[in-house]
Structures are given as C-alpha cells and as structure tokens.
Amino acid sequence: MKTRTVVSLLALSVMPAGVGAQQPALTPRDSAFHALNRLAYGPRPGDVPRVAAEGVMRWIDRQLSPAGIDDDRLAQREHRFDILRYDRGDLATMYAEAQRERRERKLAAAADTMADKDSASPIAQRGRRLAGEFADLAVVRAALSERQLYEVMVDVWTNHFNVYAAKGADRFLTPDYIEHTIRPRAMGKFEDLLIATARSPAMLFYLDNWESVAPGSVPPTALRVRARPFFGRRPGLFGPMRDPARQDSVRRRALERIPKGINENYARELLELHTLGVDGGYTQQDVIDVARIFTGWSIERPQQSGDFAFHEWAHDRGEKAVLGVKFERGHDMDEGIRLLKLLANHPATMHHVSRKLCQRFVNDDPPDGCVDDAVAAWKRSSGDLREVLRAIFHGPDFWAATNVRAKVKTPLEFVVSAARAVAAEPDTSPRLAQVVARLGEPLYLHVAPDGYPEREAAWVNSGALLDRMNAAVALASGKLPGVTVVLDSIVSAGDADQLIGVVNEKILGGTMSENTKQVLRRELAGIGDPAQARALAVGLAIGGPEFQRQ
Amino acid sequence: MTISRRVFVKSGGIALFSVGLDPLFLARAALGLDRLPPPSTALHRPVLVCLFQRGAVDGLNMIVPHGDPIYYQERPRIAVPEKDVLDLDGYFGLHPGLAALKPLWEAKTLAAIHAIGSPDATRSHFDAQDYMESGTPGVKATPDGWLNRYCQHDREHQDTPFRAVAFGPQLPRILAGSAPSLAIDDLQAFGLRAPQPAARDRLTRAFEELYAGSATGLLSTSSREAFEAVQTLKRLDPGQYRPASDADYPRGKLGRALLEIAQLIKADVGLQVAFADVTGWDTHVNQGATEGLLAGRLGELGQALAAFARDLGERMSDVVVLTMSEFGRTVRENGNSGTDHGHATAMLVLGGPVNGGRVLGQWPGLDPAQRFEGRDVAVTTDFRDLFAELLTRHLGARDLSAVFPGFVADSQRFPGAIRG
Predict the structure, then answer these.
(1) Which of A128, A447, A514 to mutate to test the interface with B (most CBs of B within 10 A)?
(2) How many CA atoms lie within 13 A of A11 on its CB side?
C-alpha cells in the first residue's frame, strides 16, 4: 500500500510532462489529447484544454473512480431507451412468444413463408427494434458519458467475455448480461467479474455449459417427455398431435435432446481465453476436469425466467484435479466457485489479462514493462482492476512517444470519437450502431468466443476505410439520420486558413500534417458558402488518416 | 430478439448514406481520374467460387438416390418420384429443379460429392456453419476463416484488392482474418458516395491525396488498395455490363452475385476467391418433392449456375464453383412433410477443371444400420478433404497445414473432384 502511494505521488509530479527523460516531453495539451484518446473515446470540443488545465494525472485519477463523477446527462438520456425497462423475464417471455409465433406461422404456412427471412410478426419486430436500440445504447453511453474510462472498460470486458447475441437464447439474455453482469463489475475485482460471467445465463448458453451433464445422469423430468420446445431448438413441436407417427417422432426427438454427457466448450474457453491464456500451462485433462466441475451449472427454461440454476442431478460427483489442485468429491456448486477463485488469482491469468489491457491502452504489441507493472499491481491489490489500470497509466510506457498515436481506432472507437468530435447528439435510433457494424465490428455480434481482436490488422482494410470516409462526410454534413451535429460549437468559420487551423486544433488535436493542410486548402478554395466549407473540412479531417489514429 | 445471422461485418465501401455535397462540387470543374492502373494480372489464373447454402440443404433431394428403395420408403410424401428424377448414373439422379445443370453434367464439367460433411456431430446451424467456415470442426476459438487463411499463407498470388471478395453486405466468417478481403454488396456503389459523378470523383481524389500524403503503416497500404479498387471499378463501369451469350441470370441475390462475379473474372482484376450466400434451405415444413419449396430454391440455384457458366464461356476453363452446406437432413421425412437437421449432405463442383459426370465419394447407404445415429446419412468424406483438394489441385496451394490446423491433407483421401 505504502509503495503504491509513493509511486502515485511520484507519477503525479512527473508524468504530465512525459516520464522519460530520454524523450521529448509531451506538452500538457498533448498529454491531455493522448489520455482522452486512450482512456476516453476521444475529446469533445473543449475537452483538451479542460483536461490540460485540470492536470492530466488528476483527471485520470478521477476517471479511475467513476462513482464520483456526476453523469446526470447520460442518466437522463438513458430514460429514452425502452430496452432498459425490460428485465430478463420480460425479454424471455417475448422471445418465447416470438418463437411460438414463428413455429405456428410455419406450420400454417404455404411454401413461401418457409423462405429464410424472418417472418416479421409484430412481436418479432419489437424484438428486433429493441435489439437495435440496445446496440445503439452502447454507442450513446460511450459518446455521452462523463465516466469515459468506465465505458471503455465495459467495452473491454464485453469483448473479453464475449457472447454472441444472435445465438438462440442469447438473443434475450445479452441485454441482461451487459447490464447486470458486466457493467456493475467493470472496474471492480477481476475475480468477481469472472464468477459473475461464469454463472450468467448468457455465457452458460453461449458456450453450451447449460447442457453439460455428468455422463449417465438423467433429469427428473426425463420420463414424462413433454412436447415443449426449449431455447430455439425448433423441431415442429406445436400443433395438433393426432398423427401417431408424429407423436412417436416427437418423443424420440425429445429424448434425443436430453444432454448425454459433458460439454467442454466453456471449460476450454474459460482457461484459454478468460483466464490462463493459451500458453497458460493447462492440459486436456485439466479441461475435462474443469468441465466436470461445471456440470449442472445451467439455466431455467425461458418460460420460467431463464435464470441461473444449479442442477444437482447433472453434477459429476467424482473427485477432480485442475492444475494439480485436488477438488474433493461432493461439493456441488462450491467446486466451481473455488475453481474460479483459483483461476482468477493464478499468475498466468494475471499475465494474460494484464497483457490484453496493455494491448488495449498502450500498444497492439504491448511492452513487457507495461505488463510487468500491471501484474505487480494485480498481485498487490488481489486483482483490483482500478489498481491494475492505475499502474498502466502511471507507467512510462503509456506516455512513451513510440506509443502515442501508435494505435488505429477500432470501428467503435472511430464512430464514437467522430461523434464526440462534432458534439453529436445521437437519438435512440440504431444509426450509429449500424455504422459501427458497417465498419466491421457489430456490437454483440462477434461469433467466436475470443472477442474482437485488439490488433489493427483485424479491422483496417480497404473496404472499411472507404466506409470510414463515407461515414465521416455524412456525419459532418449532417446527413446521418438520427444524429444531430452542431458544428457551430466547434468551428467558427472564417477564411480557409483559419478554418483549417481550427479543425486541426479542435478535431485533430494539432496533429494535422502539412499534406493534409495543403489538400484542405485546395479543396476549400473558392467555396463561398461557409457552412459547406466547414462541413467539407470537418468531413475530410475525420475521414482522413490523422483521425484514424489514437 | 431476432437478429439475422450476419457475422463479421468487415464491409465493403458501400454507402449507408447518401451524401449531399453535390452543389459544392458541381460548382467546380470536375477532375476525372484518368490514371488507370496497369492490367495487374495475367490471364488464366484459377478462380474458386464458393456458394454457401445456409440452412442445411437436403442432399438426398438434391442428388437423389433413386436406385434405393429405402429412399422411397422413408419419404412417402417428399421423395422425388422416379419418373421426375433426371438420372445421372443409374443410381443417383438430379432433382428436376436442377435441370439446367444437366448439360454441364453431360459435358463432364459438373460433379457431385455425396455423403460429405463434418466430423463434428453437431446439428446446430450456428455451430456447424461456424465449423465449416473456420475449417476447424469442433474448435470454436479459431479466429479466422479457412479461405482467408489460404490467402494469408499462399503468397504467390499477387495481392490485389479483388483477390478475395464476398458478395453481400458483410464479410462472412469464412473470409475473416488478416489477409485483405472485400465485401461488396453492389459493384456500382463501391467507393466514395456523392450524388453526382463529378462530386464523387472530387471527393475520391481528395481522400486519395490525404492518405497518399499522410497515412502510415497499414492505413497506407489499405488505402492504396481501396483507391486502386475504386479506379478499377470506375474503368469497368459495372452499370454497363451485359452478360455474354444471352446468359439469363435469375432475379434475386444469387443471380446478381454470380453476375458480378462473372464480371470481375472477365475483367481480370485478380479475383481468385469469391464467395456468396444462398439462403432458404432449412426445409422443416412442406419441403415438397418435384415441386414446392425446395424445388423453387434448387430451380434458382440451377438457373443461376447455368447462366454463370454460359456467361463465362471459355473462361470457365479456369473456374471452379463449389456449393457447400453445413449439414444434411434426416433420411426420414418428419410429421410436417419436411426434414429435420441431419448429418451428411451433398455438394456440387462445377467448372472446366472438374472431373465431372460423376457422383464422387463413398456412398454409405440408407439402411438404418448404415446411418449416423440411426437416422442420418453418415459422413464418409470430411469436407476438408474436398476443400483441400480444390485448394491444392485447382488453386495450386502447396502447404495446407496452416489453412486446416490439426488436419493432415492427404491426396489419397481427396474425392477426385479435379481432373489430374
């Protein structure tokens, strides 16, 4: 504790000017711009001087305690989002209803309703609208929240503990997962976050653990086979049951659906992605025993809330061993909790997760020193994420000239930073989220459990770059429906050189290259209408190469 | 909440929005882009076109085992009657909806592979499509797709922006990864958006110069590719394209995608791998027999493929089209005159290099004892054996260890789809 305080104080006194004596110091404004690009989704008009005046390290410390930051404006904006008025039960009911309607329509159907397009029943439409709204909510929060670092961390964990919102029951489980599993723990202890994700219905469904059972175990209800559909599996179980052949096939299929053994999916990803990392030193036998420990961690039917449930009948009661640690027989759910605590505080986990954080905040190729600092803080604080982050932001690597503007913005970072740069006011329509999707990373729709990669090669490509340019021009010229842009607050138009100067200052943080200035000067020459000139300059700046970096 | 299954939206430069900057640009002289890139590729490069039949096509009604009485016993309502089947080899026959493909069979440029599928037993569309696109059955964490990994590791092919193109709004999982690949929804709309051509050219030039002068690293190479692609398409003028030999593409997404693929192949822009989705195969209800739902889908597929072959004419000697689907369907029809999720299915390969006129693969038979879990056609050919053959013998890949990790490509197991 004492050491940390000393380090922090030291940092506070030195850092804003850039730590390394060997490097030219960042000016207070440059430091503020850098911090706003990494800990936040880019500066809004006026943010850079504001943060520079406050002192960047002081601003960072405030961001590390989000509860102390007033965020009323966002809270008011959130009221407009209907999705937040539905809890998991409501959504589960809606989902089950939509499924039932869909099946009934199909059964009633003439051939053309069978085409793959979703039948657009009112309830399905409502579901779709809410899903769109939920994606937009993430963009709106990122754009408007004063608790910027907190929103960044929500994105980090959403990605680290990825679920795919278009897989069966995850269609209705994902909003609850984000609101009640991820968000409350985004800056708490890693252990708490890990345990919460492990028992979240969204994750249990996504990685199939809900149907992982000890071999040979039989659910108490298995013998009275019920013609009830479960979670999006959709044999035609509805409608009249007169046909005996059909009844027979229903029974057979229902029996086939009873899970017959362990499913290793969650166990494997838990070790490989969520905790230890692929080189974390575990074996295939460890994976199997982890899967055995989690047998019985399951979900209630959607009609009964879709809540977490521990099924004792499905739990493997044998003895297990993971990473050489023995798990005595007969401890039911406690085995899993004990295992998660073990994994959360394992050195391989500290290293793997710290590395990802350094990748996110410092460089796609994270410097060893950053990872070491983060791991040291993790050890000192037993995985208090705020302390781990503090260590990263106070470390020399974060401020090193080689790491400033070394990262390319992800699609979400680009869209949100562009919206912030032009003081955009997004409504609840999913337009901005659609732009994020168009640029390559639709929210909650990364199919594989690894989450979106943290390396630029994953999203920088020719098609996506053209789309960034198109999005920038549309945004700046106010042609993006659902987003109000107020350029007046940023740029008071004057002559071309003045305009270019202001755009450089306010949108590019002073990073505009000579080449960009020349191109802008040429393009602006002869444009009489100041509003058009301003829109063009802002569009080219946001779509241009400098703004892609952070 | 219904979110349609669209994965990995690394998208092409198709505009979401229309940009109203035209007065601004119209007021000024239009500066055209008259620098054309040199023709970047030699002729006669092999091209692989992959069509994904999403939803799991019923292989048994596509390539019909009409010589097996069990087929008719198990499907009293939906079997294709003997008289309607277009016989291929005395045992198998084409669904009549695929009649347009029969001449290609006669010309030995069309083959079918039956009883092909995944070694993984899943009957989930989600998982099975994921595995077929990642190329790693049973492994969910694979971050990229096998077509992209092929492009990453086979560096002999010149990288052009059009080397790997998915036709659709979003880049599919099969092409996700670090090798450059494009999703193009509409060739005509690719690039910067502005209502007037002059404004569009001007905007294009401005951004091109911004990136040429200031971009670094990957931003620089990707933007160069982007503007090269834009210029190539401007030169191609896709709006003016007319298919050759009066090839008649069916209306709809598939016909349009194949037409655009044919156009890019003929334009020699370096296209090597093309991909498109074909939906509508999840026939749980009222599947139909000679006519009906499946017949309609097959009709569109057959017509589109036939038009594509006709349009390309001689160029088909460099082209192989592959159809794939995540799994097949139950041998026995269900209570709704449809079929449920099964295991093995059938795939088609078509093109000049194809060892056609044959149904390839080992036929496991339809007897319950020969089926997978007593109900589905068993898989006798791992889909990777076919994919590996196409990559090796058609595209000339040498080492597939990184394309299909954990799988040893062995020419002994290749189904023999490509002429030796």
Answers:
(1) A447
(2) 21
**pLDDT: which is higher, A317 or B21:** A317
Query: Of B15, B134, B284, which is closest to A236 when you measure between CB atoms?
Result: B284
User: By residue range, what is the domain housing residue B54?
Assistant: 43-188+253-413
Structural domain total, chain B: 1
pLDDT of residue A372 exceeding 60, the answer is yes
Residue B244 lies in a domain: no
What is the structure's pLDDT at A101? 83
Which residues in chain A have Cβ-Cβ distances shorter than 8 Å to B234? none
Tell me, yes or no, whether B5 lies in a domain. no
Query: End-to-end CA distance of chain A, in Å?
Result: 33
A129 by Cβ neighbours in 10 Å (0-12 / 13-18 / 19+) ranks as middle
State the DSSP string of A235-296. Answer: ----S----HHHHHHHHHHHHHHS--S---HHHHHIIIIISS-TTS---HHHHHHHHHHTTT
Residue B327 lies in a domain: yes
Contact residues, chain A, for B206 at CB < 8 Å: 519, 523, 540
A474 CB neighbours in chain B (<8 A) are: 15-17, 19, 193
Q: Does residue B197 sit within a domain?
A: no
CA–chain centroid gap for A310, Å, is: 27
Nearest partner of A10 among A464, A316, A390, A312, judged by Cα: A390
In DSSP terms, B382 is beta-bridged to: B117
- Summarised one tens digit per residue, pLDDT across range A167-185 is 888 988 999 999 999 999 9
Question: What are B333-352's pLDDT values in tens digits?
Answer: 988 889 988 999 999 999 99
Q: What is the ipTM of this complex?
A: 0.87
CATH number of the domain residue B364 falls in? 3.40.720
Range in A471-475, B36-40, B213-217, B313-317 the model is least confident about: B36-40
* Interchain proximity A460–B12, CB inside 8 Å: no
What is the spatial distance between Cα A198 and Cα A191, in angstroms, rounded to a whole number? 11
Asked if A352 reaches chain B (Cβ–Cβ under 8 Å), the answer is no
**CA of A228, closest CA in chain B: separation in Å?**
16
Burial of A334 (0-12, 13-18, 19+ CB in 10 A): exposed
Q: Do A445 and B181 touch (CB under 8 A)?
A: no
Q: Where along chain A do its domains lie?
A: 2-63+365-403
- Predicted pLDDT of residue B188: 83
What local confidence, expressed as pLDDT, does residue A238 receive? 37
Q: Which of B16, B27, B203 sits opposite A434 (nearest CB)?
A: B16
Residue B416: name the closest of B113, B118, B68 by CA: B113
- A103 pLDDT above the threshold of 90: no
Question: What pLDDT score was predicted for residue B4?
Answer: 28
Separation of alpha carbons A503 and A539, rounded Å: 10
Q: What angle do CA B51, B56, B60 make, to 5 degrees?
A: 100
A390 to chain B, closest Cα gap in Å: 30
Query: Contact A448/B193, CB-based, under 8 Å?
Result: no
Among A141-145, B318-322, B331-335, the minimum mean pLDDT is found in B331-335
